[in-house]
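tl;dr need the bound structure. longer version: we got a ligand (iron/sulfur cluster) that a collaborator sent over and nobodys looked at where it sits. i said id run it. heres the input, straight from their email, havent touched it
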Amino acid sequence: MSSVAPGTPLDPADPSVVATRYWHSLDDGRIQCDVCPRACRLHEGQRGMCFVRARQQGQVVLTSYGRSSGFCVDPIEKKPLNHFLPGTPILSFGTAGCNLACRFCQNWDMSKSRDLDTLADAAGPEALAAAAQRLGCRSVAFTYNDPTIFLEYAIDTALACRERDIRSVAVTAGYICAEPRRELYRHMDAANVDLKAFTERFYRDVCAGHLQDVLDTLVYLKRETDVWFEITTLLIPELNDSDAELEAECRWIVDELGVDVPIHFTAFHPDWKMTDRPPTPAATLSRARRIALDHGIRYAYTGNVHDREGDATLCHSCGARVIERDWYELLAWRLDARGRCVSCGTPCAGVFAAQPGRWGAQRQPVRLAAR
Ligand code: SF4
């Protein structure tokens, strides 16, 4: 194990390279990273598949602590989270790299970056929490790429945010091993988990991963934490959008997670290594939403399209539209101060303030590093 405490810089002159906890030595001289199921086995000087974790001085280090590919204040609906402090601004940031290899990646300029110069902005946890407060954000999102691979930075930021009553949100593929999963989610208040498909074949052939590990994360979040979470499935024509697959996914969600976990079916656009597929038709998203509702899921949404029906939150008891949206913008609000339907008094699942936020649909890029 490391002689340097996890989270501590190896070299005080370079705070972006810090010691980590989850790895072990192998008999053949390599070191295995135990953060995600990819289990990279590294020789001295090698980087893991995620690119930001590497072996240096006989240990696995994180090489992107405090470095970001950019900061932006977004509507929280963009994460997407529709049931967690709706209408509020969230300070979003990510680093570089990813531990999956999705051929359709919609964020590939950051997640697939092999160039640490992408990490043009810098902010330590304290500076980030202070910026979030100054900008009027209720939460900070670890997004653009997966906080799994920069968990030491994400956790320290979440701790600094909690001191200022600012919540932390993980936007993640859920591809993480059990021990780091426990540590990461102890510090998170909400998450959006990508469930990229519901077949092992899709995860293996399209993402170079495994479905079961993601399902394990979802079950863990539901059964063993208070983290509010929602699911996103990006629908790709003819790859993961069949009725049979969507029905299997919705059945599993109802059986294992219950009816109150919201699901977002979002539209694919051709990108990265998948330019041979057309964009997802709006009708596919509506069909998926209908399947989810028919299976008993109470909150099913369409995403990346203008669809007032698919954007609305319905009261599961009386059917009233308790929240209406247009894409990321809140329109009507029919919940009382305790998050209950004003028509019939039935609680809506989620985390709601007495009043909705008024941030709207705007995105506001911000620069945090001293110039
Ligand atoms: S976190 Fe990175 S280095 Fe560690 S196993 Fe996963 S891909 Fe490999």
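gonna send this back to them w/ a short note. The chain has a mean pLDDT of 93.
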